[in-house]
């Protein structure tokens, strides 16, 4: 098991450092894989509702109370009338979901209004584990007849977003007053906290919402248009909203506030497209509006089902919420986002956030069709919703915002993330059973987002983009407003493929089989390529790729779309020349020595290894004529080489020789996996600082050209990708102590501190982090005071990251204490903790002390039982950065904490941490020798290179 944990944790650490967007859905749940590795699956299908009774229409009255209700502040009373139908005979019990404080009354009536008697001995019961509300009848329901179920209940708002349901958050308005707002987050299984309901996606129904609140709460928004408002007693108002389309319960939402207003709007669309946020962000959402408008226009055309035709009552609102548990949530008519992603201002926003925002708005809008219009029966199929939304978040956005070059960024964001995650032994297929709530949230992870999106892109390349588009329309049209699944999707693919005869070039290829394997089998293949350069014959073989070399082969064959380029035919075409459906195969090229690269632009979901001669030809080309090889394939090679090394298929010597070309490389896509790969290694040297310093010197040597070429200043008119390259290069260089980077960052900070010269937002990350590392306690106080003053969520987040890098134990302790207050929002508490852990080598000691002294409060404030399980992650991440004496101390302390739910994970984290250090100790000399070898052979001849490779390559 420890091997698995090493792999998982290794990736997690890497994600921590790579993470530009601290918590997006796909990374948020990455940590859960630790549990997946440790726990057996929960096969208890008792979580599922029976399907003998279905809801048709919900009429829901919710009365929200804030602090004016003194005996039970921040609570709500609900009454709902649900029109239901028995779809089977002999129904004597109605089971639905409820997770509320109190059920006050339940009645059932038939269409004439006559009561149906409930069992007088026990009219209803609740089952806490499953959140079931069981209503026991004294008579039998008539199949096909409709009834009205009335439920009166009460509940309390959650504090902060993490536990979802109806929750309250806070903000400061333009006058400096602190204000409380209430809003909802129901996906995936939290509508039952707001109103008892059939809280599974397949039970689609119409919802009519009525909200009463104090009259001052005028900023009220929900899925649909307002029908009427009525004044009530006690200075209260009730807003009645028009009914929704037929949809799943998790898509219902509202926000009730005093001063949220439209902060940007486009009234030329029907419905108008509005960005809604705090009044003191008015005018700061023009960029978000442009994203929402253009992507709505795009999807209207692409799917052939315009947004305005989805339902006459639906709005097209986008809420900028100061608190949000994920990056964004696709409630129909009213999407909510973490404010971080909607308030985009080039003077205040770092490029990676601006970039991510473009994909996010598009992702959420794509869900209006894929997810809301069609919805999968159950969360086992989450990959369909999330895969399509993720695919469109990049591929569709490329059309409307070509400047972001998102088609290229897809690879590091999704494809490489998936290849890394899906190579563990505990990975799961895209389609797989989930039951318990933690499994459901766990399935909102890398496989459902990244692998599914990559699978869809690979499929589109096989069947053609036009056929893919057609299949989307067929799927949406045939299943509109209904629950659906992967079989319906396959039918839509087949319909479009047959009509277009899209697979004519691939005789004997079964699309059904391709689909079945990729959807239902875990993992992916590595393609082994063996080229006879004198004849041009290329032998191919495949096997499932595991990162651990200890895993037995499975014999699984994957259908692989084959593309390749050569020096003499470098066309990098995405159209497969064939689909390889057997264990071995062969293709040919012209005779003669030249580089050969498979998987053009790394568009398909597999890794590639080559024979030695071919690798050497590739390495030679990368060094001498790198521009001959498309940058996405240079990136692929970097990503594959690290995986080949880690899986013992390639030696460090050989791999680092291939990577030598990085010392002349400035492309973002190439550097991104390189930084990940180097980070993975250097994190294992933390306990041997001299070796780490030697390794860092090598890495910095490789980066020098990129640092010099990119410089420290944003250049007028540069592309977003260039800004992002500078961002990741400088962040890494400064972290590794690059002198120029450190000096420049410090100078920028001093100019800001002393002369109020603004720091260019695009480089704030390295400036803030470096300043806190070098600065004094008063510099920390300076940044902290700016943190309190800032009106920009992104700048605040960068400041948190900076303050986490403070070396001063007193300042760092204050920073950690700040995470226990509301000033670090719940969704940022774990981020802030992680920033501190990763900030400096010695920080872990201070953090351990802090954790020991404050564990009870941490568990409460970080909301330990919320779905991402932030306290589990915090305690595991801490272990990953402690060295031996402190690990012993941590272990001893944990032995007094066996009652905390994180105990087992933290202990496992300690053994992983030890294993990682042991790995570092065992491999440091080999790795450092490989770096020297590489440096010494920069000008070496081919023959020397070949013999060296023969000596060093693992077979
Ligand atoms: C950004 O800052 C520059 C220089 O301070 C200023 O001229 C410009 O108007 C600002 N842009 C925005 C969108 O505020
Ligand atoms: C390449 O093919 C030729 C002709 O079949 C053969 O003589 C030679 O040994 C092959 N080379 C390798 C490296 O397999
Ligand atoms: C490719 O496979 C053929 C048939 O098995 C074999 O004769 C040949 O030597 C192989 N070539 C290489 C380069 O491995
Ligand atoms: C690209 O190369 C492949 C493999 O050699 C070939 O089949 C394909 O026709 C080429 N495509 C273009 C556009 O040249």
TrEMBL record:
Keywords associated with the record: Aminopeptidase, Glycoprotein, GPI-anchor, Hydrolase, Lipoprotein, Membrane, Metal-binding, Metalloprotease, Protease, Signal, Zinc
Transmembrane segments: none
Domain ERAP1-like C-terminal per the UniProt entry, residue ranges: 595-907
Enzyme Commission number, as recorded: 3.4.11.-
Names of required cofactors: Zn(2+)
Cofactor binding mode and count: Binds 1 zinc ion per subunit.
Coiled coil (UniProt feature): none
Enzyme class: hydrolase
InterPro entries attached to this UniProt entry: Aminopeptidase_N-like_N, Aminopeptidase_N-like_N_sf, ERAP1-like_C_dom, M1_APN-typ, Peptidase_M1, Peptidase_M1_aminopeptidases, Peptidase_M1_dom, Peptidase_M4/M1_CTD_sf
Gene Ontology MF terms: metalloaminopeptidase activity; peptide binding; zinc ion binding
Domain Peptidase M1 membrane alanine aminopeptidase: 288-499
Keyword Hydrolase in annotation: yes
UniProt record, GO biological process: peptide catabolic process; proteolysis
Stretches assigned to the Aminopeptidase N-like N-terminal domain: 55-251
Record-annotated site: Transition state stabilizer: 449
SUPFAM superfamilies named in the record: Leukotriene A4 hydrolase N-terminal domain, Metalloproteases ('zincins'), catalytic domain
Superkingdom of the source species: Eukaryota
Entry binding sites for Zn(2+): 363, 367, 386
Subcellular location field: Cell membrane
PANTHER family from the UniProt entry: AMINOPEPTIDASE, PROTEASE M1 ZINC METALLOPROTEASE
Stated name of the protein: Aminopeptidase
Gene source species: Achaea janata
Gene this chain is encoded by: APN6
């Amino acid at each position: 098991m420890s091997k698995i944990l090493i792999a998982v944790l290794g990736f997690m650490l890497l994600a921590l450092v790579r993470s530009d967007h601290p918590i997006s859905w796909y990374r948020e749940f990455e940590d859960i894989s630790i549990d997946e590795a440790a726990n057996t699956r929960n096969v208890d299908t008792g979580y599922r509702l029976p399907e003998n009774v279905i809801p048709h229409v919900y009429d829901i009255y919710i009365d929200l109370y804030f602090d004016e209700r003194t005996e039970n502040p921040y609570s709500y009373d609900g009454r709902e009338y649900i029109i239901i139908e028995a779809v089977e005979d002999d129904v004597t019990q109605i089971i639905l979901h409820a997770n509320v404080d109190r059920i006050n009354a339940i009645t059932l009536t038939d269409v004439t209004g006559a009561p149906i008697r409930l069992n007088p001995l026990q009219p209803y019961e609740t089952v806490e584990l499953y959140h079931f509300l069981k209503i026991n009848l004294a008579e039998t329901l008539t199949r096909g007849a409709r009834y009205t179920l009335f439920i009166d209940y009460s509940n309390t708002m959650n504090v902060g977003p993490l536990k979802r349901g109806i929750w309250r958050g806070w903000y400061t308005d333009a006058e400096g007053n602190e204000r409380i707002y209430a809003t909802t987050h129901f996906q995936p299984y939290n509508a039952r906290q707001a109103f008892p309901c059939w809280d599974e996606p397949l039970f689609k129904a119409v919802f009519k919402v009525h909200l009463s609140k104090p009259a001052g709460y005028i900023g009220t928004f929900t899925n649909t248009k307002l029908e009427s408002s009525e004044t009530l007693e006690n200075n209260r108002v009730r807003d009645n909203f028009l009914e929704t389309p037929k949809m799943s319960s998790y898509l219902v939402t509202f926000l009730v506030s005093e001063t949220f207003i439209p902060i940007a709007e486009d009234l030329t669309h029907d419905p108008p497209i509005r960005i809604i946020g705090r009044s003191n962000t008015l005018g700061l959402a023009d960029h978000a509006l442009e994203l929402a408008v253009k992507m709505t226009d795009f999807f209207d055309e692409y799917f052939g089902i315009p947004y305005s035709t989805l339902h006459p009552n639906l709005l097209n609102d986008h809420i900028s919420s100061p608190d949000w548990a994920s990056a964004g949530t696709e409630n129909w008519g009213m999407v909510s986002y973490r404010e971080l992603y909607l308030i985009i201002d080039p003077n205040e926003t770092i490029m990676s956030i601006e970039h991510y925002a473009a994909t996010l708005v598009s992702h959420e809008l794509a869900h209006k069709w894929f997810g809301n219009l069609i919805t999968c029966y159950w969360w086992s199929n989450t990959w369909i919703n999330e895969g399509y939304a993720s695919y469109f978040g990049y591929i569709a956005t490329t059309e409307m915002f070509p400047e972001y070059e998102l088609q290229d960024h897809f690879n590091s964001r999704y494809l490489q993330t998936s290849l890394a995650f899906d190579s563990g032994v505990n990975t799961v297929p895209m389609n797989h059973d989930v039951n318990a709530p933690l499994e459901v949230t766990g399935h909102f992870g890398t496989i459902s987002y990244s692998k599914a999106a990559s699978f869809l892109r690979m499929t589109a390349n096989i069947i053609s983009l036009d056929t893919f588009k057609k299949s989307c329309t067929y799927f949406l049209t045939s299943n509109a407003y209904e629950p659906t699944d992967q079989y319906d999707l396959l039918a839509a693919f087949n319909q479009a493929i047959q009509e277009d005869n899209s697979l004519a070039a691939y005789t004997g290829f079964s699309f059904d089989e391709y689909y079945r394997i990729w959807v239902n089998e875990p993992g992916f293949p590595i393609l082994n390529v063996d080229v006879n350069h004198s004849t041009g014959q290329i032998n191919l073989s495949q096997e499932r790729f595991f990162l651990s070399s200890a895993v037995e082969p499975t014999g699984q064959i994957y259908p692989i779309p084959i593309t390749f380029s050569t020096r003499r035919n470098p066309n990098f075409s995405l159209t497969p020349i064939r689909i390889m459906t057997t264990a071995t195969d062969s293709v040919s090229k012209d005779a003669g020595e030249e580089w050969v690269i498979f998987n053009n632009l790394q568009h398909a979901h597999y890794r590639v290894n080559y024979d030695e001669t071919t690798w050497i030809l590739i390495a030679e080309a990368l060094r001498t004529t790198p521009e001959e090889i498309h940058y996405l394939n240079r990136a692929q090679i970097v990503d594959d080489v690290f995986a080949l090394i880690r899986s013992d298929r390639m030696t460090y010597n050989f791999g680092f020789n291939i990577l030598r070309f990085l010392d002349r490389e400035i492309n973002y896509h190439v550097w991104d996996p390189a930084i990940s790969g180097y980070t993975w290694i250097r994190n294992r040297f933390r306990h041997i600082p001299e070796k780490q310093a030697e390794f860092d010197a090598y890495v910095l040597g490789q980066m020098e050209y990129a640092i010099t070429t990119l410089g420290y200043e944003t250049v007028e008119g540069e592309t977003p990708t260039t800004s992002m390259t500078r961002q990741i290069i400088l962040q890494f260089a400064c972290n590794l102590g690059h002198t120029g980077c450190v000096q420049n960052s410090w100078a920028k900070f001093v100019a800001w501190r002393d002369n109020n010269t603004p720091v260019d937002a695009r480089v704030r990350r390295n400036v803030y982090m470096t300043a806190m590392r070098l600065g004094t306690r008063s510099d920390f106080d300076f940044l902290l005071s700016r943190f309190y003053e800032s009106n920009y969520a992104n700048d605040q987040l960068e400041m948190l990251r900076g303050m986490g890098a403070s070396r001063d134990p007193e300042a760092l302790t204050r920073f950690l204490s700040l995470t226990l207050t509301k000033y670090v929002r719940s969704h940022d508490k774990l981020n802030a903790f992680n920033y501190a852990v990763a900030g400096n080598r010695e920080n872990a000691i201070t953090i351990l002390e802090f954790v020991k002294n404050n564990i009870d409060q941490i568990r409460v404030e970080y909301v330990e039982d919320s779905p991402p399980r932030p306290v589990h992650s915090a305690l595991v991440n801490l272990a990953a950065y402690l060295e031996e004496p402190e690990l012993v101390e941590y272990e001893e302390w944990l032995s007094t904490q066996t009652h905390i739910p994180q105990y087992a994970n933290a202990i496992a984290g300690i053994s992983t941490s030890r294993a990682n250090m042991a790995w570092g100790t065992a491999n440091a000399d080999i790795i450092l020798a490989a770096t020297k070898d590489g440096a010494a052979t920069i000008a070496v001849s081919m023959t020397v290179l070949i013999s060296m490779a023969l000596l060093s390559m693992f077979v």
